[in-house]
Amino acid sequence: MERVGLTTTIPVEILFAAGATPVDLNNIFVTSNKGKKYIESAELEGFPRNLCSWIKGLFSVAIDNNIKQIIGVTEGDCSNTKALLEVWEMKGLKIHPFAFPQDRDIKNIKREIDNLAKNFKVSIAEVEKVKKDLHAIRKRVQYLDELTWKHNKATGFENHLYQVSCSDFNGNYNSFLAELEEKINEIEKRPTKKGEIRIGYIGVPPIFSDIYHVIEEYGGRVVYNEVQRAFTLTGFHRDTSIYEMYLDFTYPYGIDFRLKDIEKQIEIRKIDGIIHYTQAFCYRGIEDIIVKNSLNLPVLTIEGDLPGNVDARTRLRIESFIDMLKDFKI
Ligand code: SF4
Question: How confident is the model at residue 67, as a pLDDT?
Answer without folding.
Answer: 97
